[in-house]
UniProtKB/TrEMBL annotation:
GO cellular component: microtubule organizing center; MWP complex
One Pfam match: WD40
Protein name stated in the entry: WD repeat-containing protein WRAP73
Source organism superkingdom: Eukaryota
PANTHER family: WD REPEAT PROTEIN 8-RELATED, WD REPEAT-CONTAINING PROTEIN WRAP73
Length: 248
C-alpha cells in the first residue's frame, strides 16, 4: 500500500463537484490541489480572508462571505450569532442558509442570503448540542441530529419543529417497527458426492472445527425479533474527546 506525502491542514477540506480538485484550508490560505498529481492549482481568486467553508472570523465574531461563482468577488458578508461556528449549508433551493454552533452550544440559525436571521432554534441549553444537520432534497425540511439521541425536523415555512424522533432504549408493543438481529448461520454443505483428497478433506474439517462450524464457514443473516426487546447500548468514555454518541 502506497501513501502520498502528508500535507499541512488546519481546517476542513472539500472536493469540487466534479472531483477534480481538493480545497484545503491552511491557516489563512485556501489551497486547491489537483487530485491526480496533488500539485497546487493556480488560484481563480487572489485570496480569501479566513477561508473556512465560505465563512470567516473577524473581531472575535464569525462571518459568512458570499462569493459570485463567475467573478469570485465577495457579494456580501454578514456576522452570525455563534460562539464558534461549526458548519454552514445552503438549502437545495438556495433560499436559506443554515448555520450551527459548536457542540458546546446548542444553536441552529437560519439566514437569508442577504444576511437576515430568519429563525434561531435552541432545543435545550445544557449538555452537548448539535452533531449533524441535513436538508431534505426539496429544501422544505431540515433535520437536526443532536447528542441527546434525538432528531428534530423543522419546516421551511415557520421553521418550527413538527416532528421529533428519539432512539428508545426498549421497544414494546404496540409497535409498527420491525426489529432485525444479525446472526451467524453456519454453512451446511453436503460433501458426500465430492471426490476430494484425504488431506484436503481433513483440512476443511479442521478449519470448520476451529470456526465452530461443520462446513468450514458461516454466513450472516437477519432474524426478526419479537417485542418487547431491550436494545444494547454502550456509554461513551467521559474522559475522552469526541464521544461516539448522538445522531450522526
Amino acid at each position: 500500500m502506497e501513501f502520498t506525502e502528508a500535507y499541512k491542514q488546519t481546517g476542513p477540506c472539500c472536493f469540487s463537484p466534479d472531483a477534480r480538485f481538493l480545497a484545503v484550508a491552511v491557516d489563512y490560505r485556501l489551497v486547491v490541489r489537483d487530485v491526480v498529481s496533488l500539485k497546487v492549482h493556480p488560484p481563480s481568486v487572489p485570496h480569501l480572508l479566513s477561508p473556512l467553508r465560505s465563512q470567516g472570523s473577524r473581531d472575535c465574531k464569525d462571518y459568512i462571505n458570499l462569493l459570485s461563482c463567475h467573478s469570485w468577488e465577495i457579494m456580501s458578508a454578514f456576522a452570525v450569532d455563534t460562539v464558534d461556528l461549526a458548519g454552514v449549508e445552503w438549502s437545495p433551493d438556495d433560499s436559506a442558509i443554515v448555520v450551527w454552533d459548536s457542540l458546546l452550544e446548542y444553536k441552529v440559525l437560519i439566514y437569508s442570503p442577504d444576511g437576515r436571521c430568519l429563525f434561531k432554534y435552541l432545543a435545550y441549553e445544557s449538555g452537548l448540542g448539535v452533531k449533524s444537520v441535513a436538508w431534505s432534497p426539496c429544501g422544505q425540511f431540515l433535520a437536526v441530529g443532536s447528542y441527546d439521541q434525538a432528531v428534530r425536523t423543522l419546516n421551511h415555512l415557520t421553521w418550527k419543529t413538527f416532528a421529533e424522533f428519539t432512539h428508545a432504549a426498549s421497544i414494546r408493543s404496540p409497535c409498527n417497527a420491525a426489529i432485525f438481529k444479525e446472526v451467524d448461520d453456519p454453512w451446511q454443505l453436503d460433501m458426500s458426492e465430492l471426490c476430494l483428497s484425504e488431506g484436503f478433506s481433513r483440512n476443511m474439517q479442521d478449519n470448520g472445527a476451529e470456526n465452530g462450524t461443520e462446513g468450514g464457514g458461516s454466513r450472516v443473516k437477519y432474524a426478526v425479533m419479537d417485542v418487547p426487546i431491550t436494545l444494547p447500548s454502550t456509554k461513551p468514555a467521559t474522559d475522552k474527546p469526541n464521544p461516539k454518541q448522538g445522531i450522526g
